[in-house]
């Protein structure tokens, strides 16, 4: 993704992601039973609705829909396997929020062509369930796959490269999901 594309996407993307999430959430509350298929249908309806508002291109709306689908599926699997709720999935903690704020204030982003090319190459080979810097994700805790550094998102935002090592790869951290082999 080039810098102008990212800037264009980031302008309305976070608001649109949250609107799509709210639309899907309100629709799912009305339905008696929620399945993965129902979730996919509601996300697609939200994508179509946002596209028809003509604030985003088809590609941008579809990309945000994919981000939303990923986050909601992850939450559904977590709740199904653990019986825990949203609070456990988000793993938000005041001390971590303070640490994140300090990290952001002290960090300086180094944007280079090499980083952009590396991100594009890694995006093509990305594992399911992984997050890459530049992607939109909802609030929660994310762990750098390279060094283990934690990143806390308190609201829907773009994931930034790791403050500790500059890596672009993360996974969402939850207290008990997926189940680990003992």
Helices and strands in order, then pairings?
Elements: H1 3-30, H2 36-52, H3 58-82, H4 86-90, H5 94-106, H6 113-124, E1 130-132, E2 136-137, E3 140-144, E4 150-153, E5 157-158, E6 169-173
Antiparallel strand pairs: 1-6, 2-5, 3-4, 3-6
Shape: globular
**Beta strand count:** 6
Question: Which residues form runs of ≥5 with pLDDT under 50?
Answer: 1-8, 105-111
Q: Which structural class should the secondary elements be placed in?
A: alpha+beta
Radius of gyration: 17 Å
Q: How many H/I helices?
A: 6
Q: For the residues shown, what is the average pLDDT? A: 76
Tell me roughly what share of residues is in helical segments.
40-55%
- Secondary-structure element sequence? HHHHHHEEEEEE
Distance between the termini: 40 Å
- How would a textbook summarize the main sheet? 4 strands, antiparallel
Question: Largest beta sheet: what is the strand line-up?
Answer: 1-6-3-4
């Amino acid at each position: 993704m080039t810098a102008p594309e990212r800037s264009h996407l980031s302008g309305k993307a976070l608001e649109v992601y949250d609107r799509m999430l709210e639309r899907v959430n309100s629709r799912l509350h009305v339905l008696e039973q929620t399945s993965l298929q129902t979730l996919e249908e509601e996300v697609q309806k939200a994508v179509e609705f946002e596209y028809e508002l003509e604030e985003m291109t088809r590609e941008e709306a579809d990309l945000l829909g994919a981000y939303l689908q990923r986050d909601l599926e992850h939450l559904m699997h977590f709740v199904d396997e653990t019986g825990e709720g949203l609070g456990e999935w988000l793993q938000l903690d005041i001390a971590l929020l303070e640490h994140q704020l300090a990290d952001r204030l002290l960090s300086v982003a180094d944007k280079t062509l090499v980083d952009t090319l590396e991100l594009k190459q890694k995006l093509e080979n990305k594992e399911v369930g992984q997050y890459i810097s530049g992607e939109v994700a909802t609030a929660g805790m994310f762990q750098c796959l390279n060094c283990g550094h934690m990143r806390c998102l308190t609201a829907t935002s773009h994931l930034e490269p790791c403050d500790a090592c500059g890596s672009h790869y993360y996974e969402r951290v939850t207290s008990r999901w997926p189940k680990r082999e003992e």
